[in-house]
Specification:
This protein has about 325 residues and is mainly α. It is about 65% helix and about 0% strand. Helix 4 runs antiparallel to helix 6, helix 6 runs antiparallel to helix 7 and helix 10 packs antiparallel against helix 11. The longest helix has 28 residues. It is globular, with a radius of gyration of 21 Å. The relative contact order is 0.09.
Amino acid sequence: MRKSRPKLTLLKDKLLAKVLFALLGKRVKVKGERDNTTPFPLPLSPFPDLCKKSDYRAIIPASFFGMILGLAGLGSCWRVAAKLWHLPAWISEAIMLLTIVIWLVLLLLYVGKWLWARADALAEFEHPVLCCFIGLVPVSTMFVALAIAPYSHAIAITLFVVGAIGQLSFGVYRSGQLWMGGRKPEIVTPILYLSTVAGSFVSAIVASTFGYREWGLLFFGGGLFSWLALESMIMQRLYLLEALPKPLRPTLGIQLAPPAVGCVAYLSITSGQPDAFAQFLFGYGLLQALILLRLLPTGHSPSALPPYRWHPCVLLNAA
């Protein structure tokens, strides 16, 4: 007979199960589980055979990578504050270290999702709305490159190149799908910005930071004109069709990201005092913020968005 584990070990397992469930997403029941809802700790072994024997699988949505954008933006703000106002530098570096650790954990789990939960990964990849969140994976990689840059320039450049190629490849693929038509207007949301606009602007910021201003100009041009094209389509959908379904309404917060991040990208590829165009971008960002505030009483605001999807606001924070 199997020996019973000590009570202390059982208590640790239950605590671990609750923490993993809170951090890693929903638990998916497997065949034959019936109505059992008791939390179990995830298997420690990465091998598929053992994973199949587990009672639950952690399904990591790509939107979780939005946390990296928020943490990296906060860390960048503290780095600037430490230089301007002589605040403690260890705060910014601690935030950046936390950013790197969380990014690495999420990346391993997301890769594991493609290896051992391929059906869920493909379902997300083929979803007409959720697929755009995948663009956050390479974007977050470039933010991690900024976090690592003061300590290892070679690793930072490698991560930037991988992230830039990844976001460009995903953006080209998704844009090609859009060009083939067949998309229902009802599912057109600001999430579309994540496929090309966000990645291009962030690529411009990081490229200029690392001294590749010419590449930053190219990325900024791609992001700017993609933003203008998508903006007209999204505005037409919001103006002429019915209101967004309640689960999609928080995505309106992403409207704040293009002008804010675009302004930072423009400042990154230029020098001197902010010119009129930078003020244009900043002014449009303020207008979007005011519109979102006006929508708060109507329930069409990003206030109900889960913390791991607050990337539009955290991008403004990074700005």
